[in-house]
Amino acid sequence: MSLDGTYDDGNIFAKILRGEAPCAKVFEDGEVFAFMDVFPQAKGHTLVIPKHSTGRNLLEVEPQALTPLILGVQRVTRAVRAALNPDGIMVSQFNGATAGQTVFHLHFHIIPRWEGVALGRHGGGMADPAELKTLAEQIAAKIS
Ligand code: AMP
Q: Which amino acid residue places its CA nearest to atom 12 of ligand 1?
């Protein structure tokens, strides 16, 4: 999908937001929702999405959704650090299929990194749901 297009409310993240698809939820407030990536590139790979935006990407997101979204990303990133003690944390966001985007509801990736541990493939293997639930609980416990 190119950078141009229309928001499809049948996308998987819209379904998760409506409770129509399962997820390992980490956090939500009035504006943002955070959950574990099911094809994690590292242990603790977490996604943060806006709840009320129909922006498919950063270029389209309504300006008023941006501040709460990035504050949510910072809050969850701090919780990931507190829970998992990584050596570094990658925060990323893709715009358009050519850039690697596969789900067209704006989202930020929070990917913890450890010295000597290679980054997993984007869209690699599926995680064990029980493990994701445990990680989500560990991160959620550190949200402040
Ligand atoms: P992107 O490729 O940047 O659009 O990121 C989409 C991310 O969503 C990928 O890292 C996928 O692993 C992840 N993903 C796809 N389906 C689900 C799902 N049902 N629950 C959680 N994460 C998902």
A: 39
Cβ–ligand 1 distance for 102 under 6 Å, the answer: yes
Q: In the annotation, is 122 catalytic? A: no
- Whether 4 is covered by a domain: the verdict is no
For the chain (144 residues), the mean pLDDT of every run of 10, in chain order, is: 91 98 98 98 98 97 97 98 98 97 98 97 91 98 97
CB of 91 within 6 A of ligand 1: the answer is no
Say if pTM beats, i.e. exceeds, 0.90: yes
Domain count, the chain: 1
Helix or strand (DSSP H, E) at 34: strand 32-36
Q: What is the CATH number of the domain that holds 78?
A: 3.30.428.10
Ligand 1 in reach of 37 Cβ (< 6 A): yes
Q: Using an 8 Å Cβ cutoff, are 58 and 106 in contact?
A: yes
Q: What single-letter DSSP state applies at residue 87?
A: S
Report the pLDDT value the prediction gives residue 2, as an integer from 0 to 100.
Answer: 84
Give the model confidence (pLDDT) of 17-53 as tens digits: 999 999 999 999 999 999 999 999 999 999 999 999 9
Domain of residue 53: give its range: 12-140
